[in-house]
Request: fold
Amino acid sequence: MSVPAKLLAFAALLAATFGVAVAAGDAFGPEERATPVGHGTMRADGGGAAMSSADHGEADGGEPAGGHEGAAGGGHDAAATAPGGLAATEDGYQLQPTATTVEAGKRTRFSFRILDPRGRVVRSGYEPEAERELHLIVVRRDTGRFLHLHPRRAADGTWSVDLRLPTAGVYRVFADFVVGGKRRTLGVDLFAPGSFRPEPWPAPAAVAHGDGFTTTLRAGDLRAGRAADLTFAVGRDGRAVTDLQPYLGARGHLVALREGDLAYLHVHPQGGDAGPDQIRFAATFPTPGRYRLFLQFQTDGRVRTVARTVEVSR
Ligand SMILES: [Cu+2]
Reply:
């Protein structure tokens, strides 16, 4: 290919990628965000492109309600490294959606309930974690689309949120919450009928792009079963971003999913002496292999998402 032809091809690629991102961003209202990721051809440096301009939605403020008892006790420690999200039930708690099929591209009211070990709807007793009683993460199973939502809880314990799945496909829905002193992540599948083309994961790389930002990950050697210190440096246009705003009570939020089964890791923000452009987390990757990391942070009142792939060795 001649040089002009290459340039032309690259320009077309940029237009196509950007077009997709804009379409996805426009499609979302203030209560949702979708992050198209994995348009891998744009990674000059190996990072995945993840662009979206939608705001991160807040729909909190569920009414307090009494009546919930009998929560199982538990601690944060022993099970802290065990991944969640692989089952719809854990310790007898159950995630029960009212629908398992949603039309892609259409705003839909998505509702669900959490049942306790005695089969009763959990109506209260949620303990805020990262400033929310419940975090709902919706990920297309190839991880090419990512949503982070905060449903509203009604007095009868039903959680609801406006959901718009960006494309057809199979999605994993994770409800991440703390009840009875223990954090649980329950997962169910959600289907959006239609044709679906899975996107390959971008190769692991230190630098990843998304929402117009660049993040550089410093983590050393990631080893299975060992606590890892993940430090992300946020940049934009070649400069460090030093005006990160608090997001969910921390500098950032991180979701880590294992390749193959989308096991959902419990990641914790870390303080420490990181610079103003840096966000630190502690995580333990349970097994060797690849993981997808979705880093979210806030600047100018908007939540940004940058996805990346990491490789964990034995
Ligand atoms: Cu959340």
